[in-house]
Amino acid sequence: MNGKLLKQLTQRRLVLFYEIFVIFLVLSYSILLIQNSSGAIPDILTPQEMLWLDWGLIFLFGLEYLVRYIYAAEKRKFVMKNWFELIAMLPLDSHFRFFRILRFIQLVRMSKILSAFFRRKELRYSFVIVSLVVLWGATGVYLIEAPMSKNIHSFLDAIWWAIVTTTTVGYGDISPVTLGGRMIAVVLMFTGIGLIGSVTASIATHFMEYLKIPQEITGEDRVRRDLIELIEKKLEEIEELSDEEYKTLLAMIETMRHQKVD
């Protein structure tokens, strides 16, 4: 293994640790937001503790923003492009809880895995369909079963039942007792088998593509690969490129095009 490949693997591991940290932070913050926003269940953190957490996230966002701003080629374009991050850092949670949702969205955007995950068309369509099916099942069961069942006390209980049924887990803590509720359960079971399988397969493919380990190559293939990686990197920050950098990018793309033709 040559030094360059070893360096790439080391960088990939560091990026992977960062991605894992951000993903767990997203999951933890989403649970806290849901738990602390529902009146039916006790809060995990006190309002003061949530405020400290929000200030910690603001510090993290500010640090990440500052580092990227320092290395940005054109500062003004960078600020104009990343206006959402500045809004998410406003400490107005005590007056507007909506800012916590913005902060959650910014957390997702900080992860390349998650942001690329939500940009994939097939995954977006799959999640929309699954969400509609779960929402339909939860609404139907809540309207039909709530007056008859002792286990469904709120719409959140119905959502929980619909998710458990769609994923075919079936904990058994909530079960329909009416004919209409059982018919809805049958529909969720059959649709869940195909839909959840499709979603999990897409998620697995996405993560495998991201975590793919680079292989050692030589000669023209290495040059071509490095050029492709450089072009992809420049395309990600195309709005921040100067005129000279943009011309260089076009020249690289033209070089790749001629190589393919030859």
Question: Could you characterize the architecture of this molecule?
Answer:
The protein is mostly helical. The protein has 11 helices and no strands. 76% of the residues lie in helices and 0% in strands. The model has no long low-confidence stretch (mean pLDDT 76). It is a multi-pass membrane protein.
Helices and strands, with pairings:
Elements: H1 3-37, H2 47-71, H3 75-81, H4 83-88, H5 98-110, H6 112-119, H7 121-145, H8 155-166, H9 179-210, H10 219-236, H11 243-261
Helix pairs in contact: 1-5, 2-5, 7-8, 7-9, 10-11
Give descriptors for this structure.
262 residues; Helix Hairpins; ion channel; Volt_channel_dom_sf
Short synopsis of the structure:
It contains 11 helices and no strands.
- Any low-confidence stretches, pLDDT <50, length ≥5? none
- Quaternary status: single chain
Number of helices: 11
Order of helices and strands: HHHHHHHHHHH
* Computed structural class: mainly alpha
Number of domains: 3
| Backbone CA Rg | 24 Å
- How many individual β-strands? 0
Q: Roughly how many Å apart are the termini?
A: 31 Å
Q: What overall form do the CA principal axes indicate?
A: globular
Estimate the helix proportion, in percent.
over 70%
Largest sheet entry: none
What percentage of the residues does DSSP assign to strands (E)?
under 5%
Mean pLDDT: 76
Keywords: Ion channel, Ion transport, Membrane, Transmembrane, Transmembrane helix, Transport
Protein name: Voltage-gated potassium channel
Membrane topology: Multi-pass membrane protein
GO molecular function: voltage-gated potassium channel activity
